[in-house]
Amino acid sequence: MDHTPRPNMPPLENFWMPFTANRQFKAAPRLLAAADGMYYTDIDGNRILDGTAGLWCVNAGHGRRKIAAAVERQLATMDFAPTFQMGHPIAFEFAAKLAAHAPGEGQARLDRLFFTGSGSESVDTALKIAIAYQRAIGQGTRTRIIGREKGYHGVGFGGISVGGLVNNRRVFPQIPADHMRHTLDIDRNAYSRGMPAHGLELAEDLERLVALHGAETIAAVIVEPMSGSAGVILPPKGYLERLRAIADAHGILLIFDEVITGFGRLGTPFAADYFGVIPDMMTTAKGITNGTIPMGAVFASRKVHDGLMHGPEHQIELFHGYTYSGHPVACAAGLATMEIYEEESLLSRAGELAADWEEALHGLKGHPHVVDIRNLGLVGAIELAPRAGAPGTRAYDVFVDCFHKGLLVRVTGDIIALSPPLTIEKEQIATIVSTIADALKRAA
Ligand SMILES: Cc1ncc(COP(=O)(O)O)c(C=O)c1O
Question: Among 91, 224, 388, 394, which is most buried by a count of CB atoms within 10 Å?
């Protein structure tokens, strides 16, 4: 590759890049300059098919004029206003819009919205709400949170404590947490189409952790209903139902981290709808504004919300919030995003494409290095055998190769993860698969 400086290349040394091998990247940068529909354009003018919806967030495709217009209008009308002991209409309107899509019935309905600025903030907010709720109902000894190995819940201290990715954890202190085992079992479930058949018994880990710590010490259990960041790990059939039952039996709140699965990724508004299991809270971000303006939201049940609405009315019920909770410009972007999802039926589109998507991805079975293929909704993963002594390098090479051939994929370890915008067409699915197939042939 040619590394000579190009006239359109900015200085690279000042931006300390997140989750990036900074020195490797800056020696051979990949810079995206524009985006429209299903495509990015890099700084050299090459078109790149977006196989990852940016970072699992651009569900309605890029460059949506409606969102840009709404943001421009809101910026000109009111750029910022506080939401501490103050309010502005658009935050309430957006909460009501989201609430209309919320799963659950009666007191279990998840239509009480706490706004944040990101997925990590949503997670830490939900964990704090869980602990505060338990205390408010007289269960103040419940301060521990149960997560799961390989879980990803962002990078706040709460999120890394319940998360289960060692590199995100080993350097940092954590809040009291423990972990169930993850549900990835390639030996038994390789090449499952959709949800794997084996592994329901892993839900009993929650029962074991109750026996180990005592239910009276546990506030909540948090899981991604489908893990994205660790490489698309699916719940075995019946697993989430069982978690719900065990949590209920012990007074433990169930939190679904829907930062990736929220807003149509599986063909339903939320994974809770897809699996038919209603948690006590859902954490969201990303697709809430189509990735345009940073924002997140915790969907809490009426039961959890109402449990905290106690004490004298002049008293703040939850000492928590962010300067940008309910930011008017983010709310404008979110409202326009939800309107696009509704007008174009995007929250169900993954369901219509799922069979073709599954068929196309599983066509990569038997290609060089492939050891497993996983899919659900409009999510997919191709797991490769690692190179001896150099885990992760093979998938990374495939990622770089695909990029130079005009396709953006994501890699984690030796897994290639796919989650295109929900606006993808069938021919583009075919392009994704053929580009990966060619890259696999070239990969050593
Ligand atoms: C399930 C899950 N939770 C939380 C997060 C963190 O979100 P953010 O990067 O917006 O803080 C992510 C990000 O990928 C995620 O996938």
Answer: 224
